[in-house]
Design brief:
Helix content: over 70%
Order of helices and strands: HHHHHEHHHHEHHH
Largest sheet: 2 strands, antiparallel
Strand content: under 5%
Number of helices: 12
Number of strands: 2
Structural class: mainly alpha
Length: 339
């Protein structure tokens, strides 16, 4: 009896794509990123013309700070979406991480670094549970993370007593987001850039990145090639949770408080940023640079609408339309690729 030959795990997803197909995929990626960047420029020009209050140092700083939180969430969920999954828990998960950081630093009086690490690991734990539910229990990612979203929302309210946890008395905590190691650049934005570089290196240079793309492209083929896809999916969701934890620490530092009712809706902004940046909801394709551009687009759009005094209800309508257009565009790309 002939034993089936399996590929070595390290060979998965690293085989070069044949000439014309590889060039086409590269060109499509570049076109998508160029279109996203052009959209960002158009929005900047439009809102600058529409309001003299838009292109001011204080407002630009506010946009960058908003982008930091959405961007950090988007970086983590990029990994999940590339696998063909989804994570709806990152918004309320971020809130729970912020609340737990507040509990560690104020109620328990732990040192700053210990409290911050505790908040980040809270996110990692949520990501790990999501990964187990998806990979081991076989739950659809939408259902598994929707359940976690509700659990995180409830725990944040229960643990905080439905009251903000103020962190202004914690020495040094404010500097995490609002300090400036580089003059003129808030630390929150610096954290975003550092994490983006780290995410890029992981996604493009490590075995975790190769397996992320391989699972999204064809999970069954990857599994038959000898890769423990369940283990790697758990790792990927845990990595996403780490980013959620960092976002929780950053937003609590920026606000100087852990707001237990904050966070709902952030998951939609982050997912929209990822899709606008060119990552496919069907998996197998995505980039960190595209995600960053998408996060900037979402922040500029929301900030610009507020500057123009557009009512919150209509802001939600516009954001919903943007998400719809992004998903529809992704669907068109998939159809063209298939044909």
């Amino acid at each position: 009896m002939t034993t089936p030959v399996t590929e070595r795990p390290e060979d998965v997803a690293v085989k070069p794509t044949s000439g014309r197909a590889g060039t086409g995929a590269f060109l499509r990626k570049q076109v998508q990123q160029s279109l996203a960047f052009a959209t960002l420029v158009v929005l900047l020009v439009f809102f600058s013309i529409a309001s003299s209050n838009f292109f001011t140092p204080s407002n630009i700083s506010g946009i960058l700070l908003s982008t930091a939180v959405v961007g950090i969430l988007a970086l983590g969920t990029t990994f999940v979406i590339i696998t063909g999954g989804i994570d709806l828990s990152i918004g309320t998960g971020m809130t729970l991480c912020a609340v737990m950081t507040g509990v560690f630093l104020t109620n328990m009086g732990l040192p700053l670094i210990v409290g911050v690490i505790g908040g980040i690991l809270t996110g990692a734990l949520m990501g790990f549970i999501n990964g187990v539910n998806v990979a081991i229990l076989g739950l659809p990612p939408f259902i598994a993370t929707l359940a976690m979203m509700l659990v995180a929302q409830g725990l944040a309210l229960v643990i905080s007593g439905v009251r903000p946890i103020y962190l202004s008395g914690v020495v040094g905590y404010k500097d995490i987001a609002l300090g400036a190691l580089i003059p003129g650049l808030p630390n929150a934005v610096l954290i975003l850039f550092v994490l983006a570089i780290l995410a890029y290196l992981v996604l493009s240079k490590t075995i975790l990145g190769r397996y992320t793309f391989a699972i999204g492209s064809n999970e069954e083929a990857t599994r038959l090639s000898g890769v423990d896809t369940r283990k790697w999916k758990i790792i990927i969701y845990t990595v996403s949770g780490l980013f959620t934890g960092v976002a929780g620490v950053v937003i609590a530092s920026r606000l100087q408080s852990a707001q237990p009712q904050l966070g709902s809706g952030y998951e939609l902004q982050a997912i929209a940023a990822v899709i606008i940046g060119g990552t496919s909801l069907l998996g197998g394709r995505g980039s960190i640079l595209g995600t960053l551009i998408g996060a900037l687009i979402m922040s500029v759009l929301i900030n610009g609408l507020r500057i123009l005094s557009i009512q919150t209800e209509w802001q939600n309508v516009v954001v919903g339309i943007v998400i719809l257009i992004a998903v529809f565009t992704d669907s068109l790309r998939q159809r063209r690729s298939a044909s």
